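Methods — Computational structure assignment.
A single polypeptide chain was analysed. Its primary sequence is given first, followed by the predicted tertiary structure written as structure tokens.
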Amino acid sequence: MRPPAGLRDVDLWQLFEGSPIGMIVTGPDGTFEHVNPRLAEMLGRDREELVGRSFREFTHPDDLEASEAQLRRLQRGDLEGTRSFEKRYMRKDGSVLYALLTVQPFADEAGRTRGFLTQVLELDEQKRRQRVQAGQIEVLALVARGARLDRVFERILEVSEQLTPGLRGSLHLLSPDRRRLMRGISRSLPPAYLDITDGLEVGVGVGSCGTAVATRRPCIVEDVGAHEYWREASGIGERFGFTACWSIPFLDSDGEPLGTFGMYFPEARTPTPAELEFFGSMAHVAGIAVERDKLEEELLQSRKLEAIGQLAGGVAHDFNNLLTGLLGNAELLARSLPEGTEDAQLAERVVQIGQRAADLTTKLLSFARKGRQQLRPVDVDDCIREVAALCERSFDKQIEIRTRLAGHGRRVVGDPGELHNCLLNLALNARDAMPQGGLLELKTDLLDAGQQHVRDAARAEWVQLRVCDDGEGMDAETQERAFEPFFTTKEVGKGTGLGLSGVYGTVKSHGGEIRLRSEPGKGSCFTILLPLAPEGAREAGAEQPQGAPVGQPARILVVDDEEAVRAMATKALGKAGYEVEACPDGASALERYDPVRHDLVLLDSIMPGMSGEQVLAELRARDPAVRVLLSSGYRQETEDPDDASGVVGFLRKPYGLTELRGAVARALAEGREA
């Protein structure tokens, strides 16, 4: 190639040809007259493909207008001396070349501008890193703003494909049991390909994505048609137009796989270190987004259950008031009728139905975490043994029951009855999920907070209880609603929908957490975490004796806003030999209370207007020696006898005659001992 007029000097021409920087001699109209080998290499073309063609053919479309403006200023002589500016060229393979141009005009013998000598310095690596960082920051900002997971995934794919010519990407989440890929999201792959990967079992040798998840490491396949991992999917690359397939898994904070980022290319190739670093960072961001999404979902579910719990607690409280009147009056009626008569039997039947209804409200209050508890150190291994023994006696023999107990001898502080019922409910649920028989496993383990990432990390040690079956399992929708009150998948009449909600309430009221993992056809596993009691915790003392005999002469003031409760309590206590006055609210109770005349106040703690707590405080201010028996369907902070507060007992609604008279007798005895 002959040197151009401006480069007749042999040394200059050799410098031009051998320069490590791209060099162009351009005519006044922007036509490439000469290019050096380095410029041809930078653009991925032969020199013959460049010479004689306008710069416009190789300029990035978005930079064309600015480049035209620069040329016009150079032609007019508006820009004197050497000028530098950045622009983008398009390579032959469609990728973008970022470059810094330094342009020097040169003149002919008459002093007219003959053309321009341009040096082209490649800025690709710096620019790529800037664009990569900008893309990462943009995606992280979406995560920080709480954008929906699908929007975050779409942007990850969009940024990745913009920065990598020829890339078609997909992001796949794992099924809850981490055994299968779920349908992926992609901007550029055909839906038919996503259909094929939906439900694909993960494992080494199951394509690039299945292998990456199984090994928790990137899987790079240069040519799917020649690789053993793709042997079972022969021809799929040709069908969908890709040759190379790379996959990088995204993991949670424990290093467990959440999903995978799949990358597909039309030609056989392996990633550069920079590409591997970039795609790895995008996969990491995807993992952060998935974990954040799961935490938000858990929080929303927790708030939802809390709101339902508040509603359930309110309903149960009102229902308990009605049941207290119903049960008490039914018992009064039954006792007033000749024993063995049909009417007496009907009255007893009403009592039994009322007690069943009371059991339902107890479950509701357990879900709402407002039921009364008898707290003491409990050996969870003993609870498991008792429940397993009961199940072995009563379950169908086709159900095999296994226990695996830690045997550490440590205890939790809890209500043994509630914990027993909690485990029994889970076992019954497992039994119903295995109508043809199966395996029921009950296990305990000792853990520290770091092993389970429990919310209350301040507690050092936890006991884990697991109740697992290999029955019918649950789909995602059922799992989401499993702990809601009154939700059931059983036939009408075969379930109240309060079993699992009661379990949830019991666990939460004991300061614990409950988790569910299930899959249709593969069973369910409930995991309960409870904080351990301090070393040396001992059993609480026995229950207090019944106290003074029923019917001891005393004067009682009954305060309750529910008329049926007041009437029943007044009549029941009157028949037991007490003198009784009744008040419908706190204000009238304060007017009537006389420290000399009244020996005990039976006070409802939840009332409109003045609450029981306010009435108690006012009574205490007027009479420091006042004796109060609190009554409610909710658990109270002052439910245990406390001389300082004036509370000498607690009576849980709904109550019958025996409970009412026994509680009054014990309260009076407590007051006399004080």
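Note: The chain has 19 helices and 21 strands.
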